[in-house]
Amino acid sequence: MLGAPSFPQLHRGKGGRVQASISTENSQPETGLALTAHEDRSLPRESRCGFSTPRVTLKVMRTVYIGMGGNMASWAGAPEATLAAAAQRLESLGRMTRRSSLYSTAPVGFAAQPRFVNAVVELETELEPRGLLEGLQGIELEFGRDRSAGIANGPRTLDLDILLFGELKISESGLEIPHPRLAERAFVLVPLNEIAAGVVVPGAAKTVGQLLTRLIEATKAISDAVVQVRSKVSADKEIGGWPSYREK
Question: How would you label 138-163 residue by residue, b for 16+ Cβ within 10 Å and e otherwise?
């Protein structure tokens, strides 16, 4: 549990810009929650003895994990390029702090389609869950994905799913957190385990790594269903199989 935050410590940076720092007692990174301070320039200032005192607002930053996938080409190119371009667009919703390797995965629920390319990214965001969901669906639309059309579990250009949102558990119309089928899907757990093996899944009382171990023991077929993409080392490839994306 986070301890009570101390008062913001204000100091002036370059150009006279007011900066603030906040410390918390007994804070634990695994909670997926952090506090940041921002100067709110929209509020009036009070001047005392010639010194301008800014108003400081606190914003809660939560760590979320987003599942990414696709098996059809988009305007950005093949699925690998689509995921690379979509990852850049995620920066509009928060700060991406980690991303898994890319994985080639067998389709689930509708077998007569190409294999998918999947990955998971870690994002720090100030958005509320519903706002994040709307932002993700907006990015999907940019890449040609319309959730109201197409076959259930069928081919698609881009999937962006909220897997975990800090320690929150939510069950609302159109919004389930943690993802309701997270523990059943190797194409989600394998990349998630790569970057968040020790994260405890709310409601499951198990870590991501423990859920993956249980799934492997139950199915015995993970190695065939989920295969890490290994690209040749070249100028247009990055570590983990992610192609570099340059907007044309």
Answer: ebbeebbbeeeeeeeeeebbbbbbbb
Do 201 and 88 lie in one domain? The reply is yes
Q: What is the per-residue pLDDT across 189-225, written as a single tens digit (0 to 9) for each? A: 999 999 999 999 999 989 999 999 999 888 776 667 8
Q: Are strands 56-70 and 33-39 parallel, antiparallel or unpaired?
A: antiparallel
Same domain, 230 and 178: yes
Which of 146, 156, 181, 230 is catalytic? The answer is 156
C-alpha span between 123 and 64 (Å, rounded):
5
Considering 62, 89, 99, 159, which one is annotated as catalytic? 159
Catalytic residue among 147, 161, 214, 246: 161
Pair 38, 71 in one domain: no
- Which residue out of 62, 89, 145, 185 is catalytically annotated? 145
Asked whether the beta carbons of 48 and 113 are under 8 A apart, the reply is no
Contacts 24+ apart (CB under 8 A), 197-200: 198/30, 199/30, 199/32, 199/65, 199/164, 200/30
51 in any annotated domain: yes
Distance between CA atoms of residues 147 and 140, nearest Å: 9
3-state helix, strand, coil in the chain (%, to 5): 25, 30, 40
The number of folded domains in the chain is: 2
145 is a catalytic site residue: yes
What pTM does this model have?
0.75
Task: Indicate if 224 belongs to the active site.
Answer: no
